[in-house]
Amino acid sequence: EVQLVESGGGLVxxxxxxxxxxxxxxxxxxxxxxxxxxxxxxxxxxGVSCISSSDGSTYYADxxxxxxxxxxxNAKNTAYLQMDSLKPEDTAVYYCNAEGFLxxxxxxxxxxxxxxxx
Length: 118
Prior knowledge:
Layout: E1 3-7, E2 10-13, E3 19-25, E4 32-39, E5 46-52, E6 58-60, E7 68-73, E8 78-83, E9 92-100, E10 106-108, E11 112-117
């Protein structure tokens, strides 16, 4: 069974630096691009960052560039999102996504809430 399980969210003060984790099972991490998305109340889900597990190339949305860092540990089938200098506008449910390189299949985690207090 394919699973993505996020952890590391919670209530954080502005300026804080939590790290989100996405633990995957049921598929080979190396064959997927891993992404982090977020959805704030009343807003559409947006892409935050992604990483290619094959070559390590990364992408960041302009809103988080320079503050967030994505990484992956293929041996542990786990991806991370290090979030620094958090702002109240970063408050959202953060979702992990995996998309296969060959067939384009997608898997989603259940999401983890990050709330940034000012």
